[in-house]
Amino acid sequence: MKICITSQGNNLDSEIDPRFGRCKYFIFVDKDGLEFEAIQNPNVEARGGAGIQSGQLVAGREVEAVLTGNVGPNAFETLKAANIDVITGLSGTVKEAIARYKKGEFEVTQGPSVSSKFGLPS
């Protein structure tokens, strides 16, 4: 199985993006190794529905968990409906997050960490 980390760049040394729906990249990592695929998020500039659309994109990749800074209510519900664990509150690099995930250092988030429309430019 794979995990998905929101990222500001397209490699494992990139910083975690604090936004889920409008993150710059999704990095999909095989949890048993460090093979990864970085996908530029097509929903960064979405006027609305970025959380749901991003959640559907991630769900289509058969991941077991999403690691991110924050997740809004629509994205959270979309991911939970796909039986994907959501872990929020992360910072640092993607590589650090993967290592901590493998050690079991995170607890699954029980609800959205921000309100809807978080991450929209003001």
UniProtKB/TrEMBL annotation:
<protein>
    <submittedName>
        <fullName>Dinitrogenase iron-molybdenum cofactor biosynthesis protein</fullName>
    </submittedName>
</protein>
<dbReference type="InterPro" id="IPR036105">
    <property type="entry name" value="DiNase_FeMo-co_biosyn_sf"/>
</dbReference>
<feature type="domain" description="Dinitrogenase iron-molybdenum cofactor biosynthesis">
    <location>
        <begin position="13"/>
        <end position="103"/>
    </location>
</feature>
<dbReference type="InterPro" id="IPR003731">
    <property type="entry name" value="Di-Nase_FeMo-co_biosynth"/>
</dbReference>
<dbReference type="InterPro" id="IPR033913">
    <property type="entry name" value="MTH1175_dom"/>
</dbReference>
<dbReference type="Pfam" id="PF02579">
    <property type="entry name" value="Nitro_FeMo-Co"/>
</dbReference>
